[in-house]
Amino acid sequence: MAETTNGGATSPESVFALRCQELKKSFQGVMAVTGATFDVPQGMITALIGPNGAGKTTVVNILSGMMKSDSGHMQIGSTDVTNWESFKIARLGLMRTFQLSRELGGLTVLENLLVAPQHQSGESLLNIFFRPVLVKREERENTERALEILNTYGLYDLRDTRARELSGGQKKLLEIARGVMASPKILLLDEPMAGVNPALIDRIGGYILDLKAQGMTILMVEHNLNVVEKICDHVIVLAEGRTLATGRLSELRANQDVVQAYLGEVINASPTR
Amino acid sequence: MSAMWYYVFTLVFFLFDYFILAMGLNIQYGETGILNFAYIGFVAVGAYVTGATSLPNAAGTGQQYILGWGLPFPLNLLLGGLAACLLAVFVALIALRRLRTDYLAVVLISVSLVLYDVINNYVPLFNGADGLYNVPEPFASVLKLTTNSFVPFFAALTGVVALLMWWVMSRITKSPLGRTLRAIRDDDGVAATLGKGVFRYQLTSMLIGSFYAGVGGGLIIQFGGSFNPTAWLPAETFVVFAVILVGGVGNNVGLLVGALLVETLLIHLPAFLPDIPGHPGLIEYIDTIVVGVLLMVMLWFRPQGVVPERVRRSPFSLATRSSKTLDDRAIIVPTNDGESTPVIQQETANG
Ligand SMILES: Nc1ncnc2c1ncn2[C@@H]1O[C@H](COP(=O)(O)OP(=O)(O)OP(=O)(O)O)[C@@H](O)[C@H]1O
Ligand SMILES: [Mg+2]
Fold it and tell me: How far apart are the C-alpha atoms of A249 and B34, rounded to whole Å?
C-alpha cells in the first residue's frame, strides 16, 4: 500500500477528530470494507473518495454507528466508540447525512430541524406538564435558531412544507441543515452534491466552508474532484474497501496507484496544473 | 326513561370510550409507528384489573379472581390503566427492543392470542370464560342512581374523562416529545443518528398508549358491570385500527370522528335495529363486512382519513431576513442577485 506522506495542511502530529483503524465489514460474503485506516483531522474538510462500491458509504455507516464493523477500532477524540449505538455516537457530537436523502417525510421542514437538538427539556413527559415555561422558552430559542439556519440554506419559505414534498436538491440541503442544527463537532456528508444542479453545488460548497470556519470537522464523500480541489484540505482514497492513500489532492495526483485506481480518467480529461 | 334514551346514552358512552381507545392506539401507531396488534389485550387487562380491584374479596361471590380489594372509583380505574402499562413494559422488553416493525406486529399478534388463551382458560385469574360480573357501579349508591339513570350519568362521566385525556394527549402530541415520536415513526434510523434513544421513546409511547387502553377498558367494565372474553376477541383490535384509519391517523379530532363513524354508527347502532325477518343475527354479520369494506375503501381512496394529520405550522417567523442569506456569503460562486431567492426557483430556472 502506497501511503502518501502527509504534507502541508496535515502533519502527523495534527489533532484528529476521528480515527479509524483496520475497520472491516462484509455482507454475506461480499467484502465491503477490508481495512479502512485513517485519521480525520480536526477542524478541516476531508474528502473520502474512491470508485463506486469502494465502501465509502459503508464506512460512513460504521462511523455513525448505523452498522457494526466486523473488526477494527474507531475513536472520536480520545473516546473509543467502537460499535457504539448510533444515538450514543450522535451525543458525542457526530452527525451525518445520507447519500439517498432520508428526510423525516411526515414532519415539516422546520420540524425536521427542531428534532435535531439534543436533550430537549420538552422531550420529557414530566417537563411537559410540570415545567411548561422552561419547555416553551427552549422551544422558542430552538425555533429562532432553526429559522435562521433555514434562512441561510434558502429553505425559509418552505419551512411549513412537509419534507417529503421537497425536491431532491432541497432534501439534500435539508439534511445538511438538520445536521447543522444539532451543533455537531463532526459532520459526515455522504455525497452532499450528488444530483443537484451546478449553481446549488457551489452554494453547498459555500455552506461547507462556512461550517469549517465555525470550527466544525467535516468528512465528505465526494465524486466531483473539482469540488474536492476547491474546498477540501485533505483527501482519503478508498479502493476495494481499504485505504489506498491519504494526503492532499495535488500529491495524490502524482501517486500511480491512486491514478490507476480512480483518478486516471479525471486527470486525463482535465488540464493539468 | 324510555328505552330509546337508554340506547342513545349507550351509544354516547361507546363514542367517548372509543375516542379514548383511539387516542391510545394513535400515539403508538399514528405518532410512533408501533403496529400494536395486541391493543385489545391491553384494553382487556385494564378492564379486568379495574373490575377485580373494585370487587370485594372473591370468597363468597361465586366468582374466582385475584385482587378483590373493594376499591372505589376512580382508584380502580387508575390501577386498570397502570396494569396495562405493566403489560406494556413486559411486551416492550421482549419484543420492542430488537424487532423491526413488521416482525414486531407479528409478535404482538401472538402476544394477543396467548393473553387471550391464558385469561380465558386460567380461571383463578379473572374467572375464565365466564369473566367478571356484578362489578359495583361507581357512585350508584352515593347518588342513589337507578339502573336507568346510571347509564346517562356514566356516559357523561366518561365524556369528562375523555375530555381530560384529550387535553393531556394534545399537550403531549404538540410537545417536542410528540415531534420526536413522529420522527421515529418516519425513520427510526435517522432519529437514532440525531441522538434519540429510540427504545426509550418507543417505551414511553407504549406506556402512554397502554394507559389509555387500560382506562378505556376499565370504563367498559364499569359501564356494563361485567366483562368476559367475548368482549375482546383478538380481532377487536382491528375495530380500533378502523377507528383511527377512518378518522385520520395523527389527528385527535379525526379520532373522535372515526369513533363516531365506525364504533357508534357501524358497530353499535345496527345492534339496535330490528332483525331482518327470518334472518336473526344477520345484521351483525353484515355489520362486520361493512366495517371491512369501509376500511378498504378508505385506505384506497382516502388513506389520510376523514380528518388528515395537519401540518404543524410554526408560530414564529424571522423578524429580519434577506440580509443573512448565503447568496451574499457564498464563497465559490456568489450569485449576482443579492436577494433571498429561494433555491426552488433557482433550480427550476436552471433546470
Ligand atoms: N446493506 C448491504 N447489504 C449488502 N451489501 C452491501 C450493503 N451495503 C453495501 N453493500 C456492498 O458493499 C460494497 C460497498 O458499498 P458502498 O455503498 O459502501 O459503496 P460506495 O463506496 O459508497 O459506492 P458509491 O460511490 O456507489 O456510493 C458494495 O459492493 C455493495 O454492494
Ligand atoms: Mg456511497
Answer: 48
Measured between alpha carbons, how far is residue B190 from residues A44, B44, B181 in Å?
25, 35, 12
Is the CB of A58 within 6 Å of ligand 1?
yes
Domains (range + CATH), chain A: 16-103+182-269 (3.40.50.300), 105-165 (no CATH)
A155-185 pLDDT tens trace: 999 999 999 999 999 999 999 999 999 999 9
Check CB contact of B200 with chain A, cutoff 8 Å: no
Q: Are B26 and B143 in a shared domain?
A: yes
Q: How far is the CA of B184 from the centre of ligand 2 (A)?
A: 24
Contact B13, B79 (CB under 8 A): no
Query: Tens of pLDDT along B133-192?
Result: 888 888 877 787 787 788 999 999 999 999 999 999 999 999 999 999 999 999 999 999
A49: three-class secondary structure by DSSP: strand
| Parent domain of B340 | 323-348
Q: Is A99 in the pocket of ligand 1 (CB under 6 A)?
A: yes
Q: Which of A23, A27, A188 to mutate to test the pocket of ligand 1 (most atoms within 8 A of CB)?
A: A27
Residue B33 to residues A246, B167, B201, Cα–Cα distance (Å): 43, 22, 11
Q: Which of A209-223, A248-262, B274-288 has the highest mean pLDDT?
A: A209-223
pLDDT of residue B337: 37
Q: Are A200 and B343 within 8 A, CB to CB?
A: yes
Closest residue to A167, CB basis, from B204, B329, B344 = B344
Tell which residue, B16, B41, B15, has the closest CA to residue B28.
B41
Is residue B194 domain-resident? Answer: yes
Of B207, B237, B267, the last residue of a domain is B237
With a 6 Å cutoff on the Cβ, whether A53 touches ligand 1 is yes
Residue B336 shares a structural domain with residue B199: no
In a domain, B334, yes or no: yes
pLDDT tens digit string along A41-66? 999 999 999 999 999 999 999 999 99
Angle between helices B343-350 and A198-213 (to 10 degrees): 140
CB–CB of A167 and B347 under 8 A?
yes
Nearest to B177 among A106, A123, A182 (CB): A123
Q: What is the pLDDT of residue A173?
A: 93
- d(CA A5, ligand 2 centre) in Å: 26
Position A223 pLDDT exceeds 60: yes
CB contact under 8 A, A203 and B314: no
> Cα separation of A208 and A201, whole Å?
11
Model-level pTM greater than 0.95? Answer: no
Give which of B170, B314, B317 to mutate to test A binding, by max A Cβ within 10 Å.
Answer: B314
Distance of residue B346 Cα from the nearest chain A Cα, in angstroms: 8
Residue B279 domain-assigned? no
B302 in any annotated domain? no
Nearest by Cα to B325 from A149, A112, A61: A149
> How many domains in chain B?
2
